[in-house]
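Lab channel / #folding
Pinned by the channel admin:
"Please post every new chain as: sequence first, then the structure tokens as a reply. Keep commentary short and put observations after the output so the thread stays searchable."

First post following the new format, from NK:
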Amino acid sequence: MSATDKVKYISTTALSKELNMNVKEVFQICLSNGLINRKDDTWVLTEKGKQIGGTIKKHPKVGEYIAWKEDIKHHTMFNTANDQLLNATALSNHFGISKFKMNPILSELGLVEKAVKGWTVTKLGKSIGGKQLEYDKTGVPYVNWPANILKNKRLVETMNELLGNEPEQEIESEQSNALGFRDKYEAKHRSADGHYVRSRAEMLIDNWLYMSEIAHAYERKLPIEEDVYTDFYLPVGKVYIEYWGLEEDPKYAARKQEKLRIYEKYGFNLIQLHDADIQNLDDILPKKLLKFGIQAY
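Reply from TO:
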């Protein structure tokens, strides 16, 4: 047996598992580095690819495929993709919390979703660099994150809140724009669950959610870099509720349009309520909630 015969070759799919990366990402890296080309619907090995250790193998069932010397996994072209990717355990160690709490916190922020087993990245999570991966042996999905998530404003704020740390001085934007509204309409209406809200309509909405045993937060900041607050947030279903009560006010109407633009930008689940809906919440809210998989009692 020659030395050449002893060389171990692996497919691109097997290589991606060795690298703990998505197979599409590995193909893209090989393409970007000139190791392969796309011809019709087939990947073709280039001369550069051959020089770096690529070859063509044949399989009785799948036919020809590109294989690589196993040591290609140590090539520097793959370092950038894997550099400083952090899993949930690494995040929990950084923030000083239990590793079992990290993914639920990321889920509350809308960055991941609970799968039958494991966790999957959301559209919002992908937008900040979340990478969907799965364990080799079990196939259970999990998500890794770029190092800059440690400085993500909403994540840092949430961790400070949970740990009881003093919040950093925040830069007011949407809050500043709404300052006149918040000063004029103080949160002085006490709902059944103890929340203080800014109008009778919001009190009726809060009471309806509470009596329906639906967990909710009032004036929760959206999990994005922009400083935008929602009227109500339902952790189950990741649903936001906005009550539009002052639409005749030009400033309020402009603020409404800006908030709607942001909801659409991030693909958030949004329920909109108007004055005409308030006296018919028993008819309206259950139908709107059911669209997002929330069963009202």
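NK: Residues 9-78 form one domain.
TO: also worth noting, Residues 168-179 have pLDDT under 50 and may be disordered.
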